[in-house]
Sequence to fold (634 residues):
Amino acid sequence: VGNPPFIGNKRMREALGDGYVQALRGAWPEIPESADFVMFWWHHAAAQVAAGHTRRMGLITTNSLTMVFNRRVVQAALDKGCHLHMAIPDHPWVDSANGAAVRIAMTVLAADASEGLVLTVTDERPGEHGEITVALTETTGLVHADLTVGANVAAAKKLAANAGLSVNGMMRAGEGFLVTTAQAEALGLSKTPGLNKHILDFRNGRDLTDAPRGVKVIDAFGLTAEQLREQFPAVYQWLLERVKPDRDQNNRARLREQWWVFAEPRKTLRAALKNLERYIATVETTKHRVFQFLPTSVLPEHKLVAIALDDAFSLGILSSQLHVCWALATGGTLEDRPVYSKSTCFDTFPFPDEDTGLTPQLRERIAHLAEQIDQHRKRVLGLAPASPADPSPPTPLPQGERGVTATPSACTSGTTPSPLAGEGRGEGAPAQPPGLTLTGLYNVLAALREGRALTAKEKTIHTQGLVGVLRELHDELDTSVLAAYGLPADAGTDDILAHLVQLNTQRAAEEAQGRVRWLRPAFQNPQNLLQKQELLPQEDQAPEADFDSEKSLSKQEQLTPPQQPWPAQLPDQVRAVAAVLAASPAPLQLPAIEARFKGRGPWKKGLPTLLQTLEALGRAQAVQIDGVAAWRRP
Fold:
């Protein structure tokens, strides 16, 4: 037990001299330069406990122990299997030398992993002889490096609202599926009709965190061997020679018999992405938890977690520090890198809604900032055009819509998903500066937040990557997301986790009673309108859906949802009409589709042409009902 000198890192050279500080840091290079002098003692004592030379150690330090630059020393001890047996994060202290009042922290570190005790000062009163009398409250639990006891995130339940949206990417089980652009062209890409659906861009984790390799993948899912050989003989031979020999030796019968198809073709993911133009992706195991948009023309590798949401509002929530806190607490680790487990990190995560403080203005703000962050990163990395149009404010959600929808036009900034996002260099894109990567950007961002001095290399990244802008955007996003959850801007990690655990419990209870706040209702709950129909009084119920009956169709149209504003931009119009068709259990005639929207101008005149466009894209199917044209989802 000891009371080392209280000297901050910025005063060490002044108090101890350059030579001593240089020798000190040379002897203990593992301690960050931003750490206070007291942390050298703390680190040394902790090493004795970790090595088994002593059972416990206790030190009085300044209360800055809980700050990021000192907390890393504490975390290093916890990572070695020790635990904080007792802690007082903030306690009054009177310096006997000059009578100055300071604040201290007290910590006791013990071997093995166990729960500890945190004492919190709730009242302070001066005594008769200069001492201070304090009142303390006790909290027992796993004590973190910031001297707090965390929420029980392990008790969080999976939510139906998030179900079916997060899936790991494709598992190939064969290097022969990968081809370069030149090889793909030699196999007939851009010349053989239909081949563009089966040779696609392919991305793994390193493609996102470092630089894209520019590889493509042969995806023969949905084709029999006979169809593949008949339609694309060159591709068939390529796989026959480069994939089948290894698959013939595989112990799994399905992989031997279906040798031309990925080992895990992810049918669930394909269904979830079917009507989207982009989706959210994050690397499963990575130093920095970063989410970004990828176009659906890019297939994800199995170490990417794909989230089938295409709206910027969802990207903003997931990109916030609030969700990162949740992911770190609920996910795992591989070596020293956090792992994003979709089942514990995403499936349990409660999104904000009106009951938490989310307003239409906050929704638009979050979506707008998320689009800016995504485009800013891609722009500085040379993955997007150099001067994209400034995102316009997002379109307000239609009345009655739940927070996150499958239609970007409803809750994003209104920008069209960039076809260059995550696809490598775009036409007119700036060349990526050597060494500038997504990981590098966030390494520098972390250094800025820790208050650590940047190295020469980091200063270059800071300048070339405009990391100051990135930091400002993230800070504004974090503040907005906290407000959407009804939390103050300075909410700490444990406050955030406790709030999210409580919200998860509330949402799980709601779902048990039948209320589910679907993130993509048209995809996750396509029978919603039929369920509403079943709840009508018997005399008001429509007959069973008979799509050959005009009478049945008119009854179905009585269930038309509230109108939404007609989007201003053509891409948003296409997505909006496609979403209406996807949400309807019955074909819709032109008047019924028009009734879903409201707006001025001659927009109705262009609706037939737009529907024909959707037909050509495979996102709508025309049918005849008593000789009258109607449209439905394919």
